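stage 2 :: seqdesign
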């Protein structure tokens, strides 16, 4: 009997994948779960980006006629996703979810804490330059699922949502090239690494030309926090907070960074006066490679290079790396 059930499940999965190859969205309701799958005409990395970046997901999320305001989108395990859906009739719908699994670029799981409660699992399967997306919504019970289908036409909305995603992927609003800067420093890798984590060194170079930096908090270890303020006569104070995701001596440092107030409270990009397209939080990755006694540094930041240049952040990185080079020569 068990083998028969397993064979039946395998055949059903094969049927879904075969149908999905036609690029048709297939919706199924089974017990307390609703599922849709579709082959999207876009590579997996691109599909992942438009699912995980607020500047993209706000443009396609929800059924036809809905728009979105993203308040918080912290795509990591136990991270919060808060947003408001604005209906075509002017009604607002507040949503809050908690991410449970984030496996880039394969799988996202989050739990919708607002009513109705459900658990969403989205998988991304590469098929050449296309992506098989499977989107599952598991409700608390069958009656709840039946109610949202009957009252809100959730099955229709889900199909419209994936169609909007397909349209968005085909538009010219694809993710821009992100910041990636490479420099060679005439210094040993260990020395360059320490300049990124020791406060007495950071205050000597980690600020643009004409500015200074201070650290009310600096915990350069995995899971550690920082709270900093870059000050200049021209632009005033710029407070930031972040978390170190990885500190691996002597080759890699990864940390988040977001705008904040002087008390360490997170600010939205709008509250901080940032340009449209700047995410609420970015990830900075610093990689150090030893090359013939020198150090090749690659700095990556999860924000559009174009937006960063408009904002001045890109130029600030260049100035700070210039300052680091001078600091290392002393």
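stage 2 :: out
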């Amino acid at each position: 009997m068990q083998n028969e059930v397993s064979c039946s499940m395998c055949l059903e999965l094969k049927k879904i994948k075969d149908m999905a190859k036609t690029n048709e969205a297939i919706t199924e309701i089974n017990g307390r779960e609703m599922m849709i799958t579709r082959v999207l005409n876009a590579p997996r990395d691109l599909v992942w980006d438009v699912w995980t970046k607020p500047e993209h997901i706000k443009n396609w999320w929800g059924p036809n006629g809905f728009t979105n305001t993203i308040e918080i989108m912290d795509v990591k395990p136990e991270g919060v996703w808060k947003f408001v859906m604005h209906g075509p009739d002017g009604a607002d719908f507040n949503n809050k979810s908690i991410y449970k699994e984030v496996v880039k670029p394969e799988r996202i799981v989050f739990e919708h804490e607002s009513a109705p409660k459900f658990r969403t699992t989205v998988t991304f399967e590469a098929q050449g330059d296309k992506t098989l997306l499977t989107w599952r919504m598991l409700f608390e019970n069958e009656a709840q699922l039946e109610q949202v289908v009957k009252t809100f036409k959730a099955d229709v909305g889900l199909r419209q949502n994936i169609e909007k995603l397909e349209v968005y992927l085909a538009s010219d609003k694809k993710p821009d090239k992100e910041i990636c800067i490479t420099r060679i420093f005439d210094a040993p890798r260990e020395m360059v690494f320490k300049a990124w984590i020791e406060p007495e060194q950071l205050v000597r170079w980690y600020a643009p030309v004409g500015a200074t930096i201070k650290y009310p908090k600096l915990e350069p270890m995995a899971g550690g926090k920082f709270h900093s303020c870059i000050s200049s006569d021209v632009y005033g104070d710029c407070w930031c907070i972040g978390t170190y995701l990885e500190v691996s001596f002597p080759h890699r440092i990864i940390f988040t960074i977001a705008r904040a107030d002087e008390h360490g409270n997170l600010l939205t990009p709008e509250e901080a006066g940032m340009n449209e397209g700047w995410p609420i939080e970015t990830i900075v990755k610093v990689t150090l490679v030893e090359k013939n006694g020198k150090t090749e540094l690659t700095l990556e930041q999860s924000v559009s290079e174009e937006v960063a240049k408009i904002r001045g952040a890109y130029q600030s990185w260049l100035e700070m790396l210039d300052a680091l080079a001078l600091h290392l020569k002393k």
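stage 3 :: structure notes
- The chain is about 30% helix and 40% strand.
- Residues 1-17 have pLDDT under 50 and may be disordered.
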